[in-house]
Amino acid sequence: MFLSVFDIFKLGVGPSSSHTMGPMSAAGRFLDALRAATAGSSTHAPEPGAQAPARVECRLHGSLAFTGKGHATDRAVALGLLGQSPASLDPDAADALLAELQTGKTLRPQGLPPLSFDPSADLIFDYGPPLPGHANGLALRAFDTHGALFLEEIYYSIGGGFILTADELAAPDDAPMQGPNAPHPFASAAEMLTMGAKHGLSIAEMKRANEIAAVPSRDLDAGLDEIWSVMKSCMDRALRVEGILPGGLNVRRRAAAIRASLEREGGRNDAPPHVINDWISLYAMAVNEENAAGGRVVTAPTNGAAGVVPAVLRYYLDHVPGARAEKIRDFLLVAAAIGGVIKANASISGAEVGCQGEVGSASAMAAAGLCAVLGGGNAQVENAAEIALEHHLGMTCDPAAGLVQVPCIERNGLGAVKAVTAASLALRGDGAHFMPLDNCIEAMRQTGVDMSEKYKETSQGGLAVNLPAC
Length: 470
Known about the structure:
The chain is α+β, with helices and mostly antiparallel strands and 470 residues long. Helices cover 49% and strands 10% of the residues. The chain has helices at 5-8, 17-38, 63-66, 73-81, 91-104, 119-122, 166-170, 189-199, 203-212, 217-238, 255-264, 275-292, 308-319, 328-345, 350-353, 359-373, 378-390, 408-427, 437-450; strands at 11-13, 53-62, 106-107, 115-116, 123-125, 136-144, 149-159, 162-165, 296-298. Helix 9 (203-212) packs across helix 14 and helix 13 packs parallel to helix 16 (359-373).
């Protein structure tokens, strides 16, 4: 499977790439399948004898059921059925759309007859065993006017906003990792290093060459610039906004107050050097506060870990002497290369391997990107990614009340700090190190397989069940 930089970094909305963006996209794909079935497509044939579709139902399974309310999965499915997509949704318009649906209980998708859909009755949280393909499963069904099944499709939200049908998940993936025409295809960190040495190219140069085999260079650059623009806008908004995050935990936004405090202390000569960690944490926490509020974010590689990469990139731009804005694209390309290798060989889904796959992967990506723009060679970049990922192994995904708030917001701050530390350590060496990144990725995969389901985004263990007794 070709993983572009635009697969790893997707424009979307909070609070979750797997529980919000994925289900929204799945609902949109189901409407497309309905249109095809209604038009007589052989690939989406309706059930024999079924009449025109008249009602739609969605059943959420596994982690989507257990933490779907906290992640706004029900809202996401409804918005997807209303024709909205994560990349273009206006969060400020969502409430009005949902209120109208709640009152009228009818969908009017383009190219289809009106469809009955009552969010209160037709969005079902199934707390039984998960579907067999993945912890994040949802079944969408359409029925005709007589109540007979017209079409059914099962989708899996596999992390980072990626969705696959049950058939797609089961199908063998024979596509090369970097695309059919990529000049420098690599499916592992070892292959990446070997190829870079063979051709005398940096990771950023190889990733760019692979990308422009599919899209023009100007489109690649425009897309990379847009990714950073959305990341920065998200961060800047959260650094100004105060108040309580939605969801019922009464978690207060802290980014604006911390920023004001740091700015007041900025002129002091006696400020301890570790204050830079507060700036790094602040940037990451700001992004994840905005994500928790349902704002516009960039998956990096997920929403739950969306703050790490932009925080480290902003640290580079605002705090590192000699930083250059033209390096932003290289940073994102290198980070995406590492994220793609991790996703291809393990997972970036908290519901599948815990938070090691989310914040751990994001920290590895950010460490690699920073190391590269600070002048690190390919071996040092790979070392930076390995250091960052290694020290997130075993991290559980245990959000309180299923909300991407506690411990997720602070966890992004610490993931960003670890990324900067990992890059710095790697730059102090020559790239030679004991544990290869590929082995660390495999250790993460094995750890995720062995991890109890209680600690994989079901909110049934860990911090999620050890809440203040008040």
